[in-house]
Amino acid sequence: MNGFILGEKSTQLQTFNKKGERIPTTFILTHPCFVTYIKSIENEGYISVQLGFKQTKNCAKPVEGALKKVGIKTPLLFLREFRFDSKSKDVKVEKKDGKATLSTGEKKWTVGQEVKPSEMFSVGSLVNVSGVSKGKGFQGVVKRHAFKGGSKTHGQSDRERAPGSIGMATTPGRVFKGKRMAGRMGNDRVTLKGLEVIELKDNGVLVKGLIPGALGGLIEVRNIE
């Protein structure tokens, strides 16, 4: 894993590429984002970097104490962990002056440092973007799965948005698992792969395309390995 960062969905805009084609873009605000903890094989059994993001007024006391311990004065709302391949020879965890540092040969992460997108990504690189999609509540099969619905003729007055048959009367005489039916829609973790980085700023990254979630929702951005 070459680079990763936490952010929030800020604005959806449009711009033009070098060919003059209009493309949709999304700006992901990544300030402030800090390295809050580094896990090692000796202590936790695996290697990972924990990032904290988004300044908040109300921070849990244990989290506030942990942040002050590593020299982060900004109270942070979200904490997320990014794991590394523990078998990789390039990944090393060292401790200097009481602070843990993880290095991969190309990049270094030190507890307490601020993570900036310009250090993690480059313009034109491809990234995977993960977020929680908007919740739609309980929906029928027409909206949830794009069903066509039943016929409007031949005496049918209440079948226009019905799912139709969901099983059979004989063997096996049951509804199969995974059958597309009405139910809760949205509010799921969604990952869009291979989005191009259009522009990098000190406080955020501009990617090509639209990303999941509502404005202000937490977003994870990872470099494609």
From TrEMBL:
Keywords: Ribonucleoprotein, Ribosomal protein, RNA-binding, rRNA-binding. Transmembrane segments: none annotated. InterPro entries: Ribosomal_uL3, Ribosomal_uL3_bac/org-type, Ribosomal_uL3_CS, Transl_B-barrel_sf. GO terms for biological process: translation. The keyword RNA-binding applies. One of its GO terms (molecular function) is structural constituent of ribosome. SUPFAM superfamilies: Translation proteins (SSF50447). GO terms for cellular component: cytosolic large ribosomal subunit. PROSITE patterns: RIBOSOMAL_L3 (PS00474). Residues 148-171 are annotated as: Disordered. One of the primary rRNA binding proteins, it binds directly near the 3'-end of the 23S rRNA, where it nucleates assembly of the 50S subunit. Belongs to the universal ribosomal protein uL3 family. PANTHER family: 50S RIBOSOMAL PROTEIN L3, LARGE RIBOSOMAL SUBUNIT PROTEIN UL3C. Part of the 50S ribosomal subunit. Forms a cluster with proteins L14 and L19. This is 50S ribosomal protein L3. The lineage of its organism: Bacteria, Candidatus Roizmaniibacteriota.
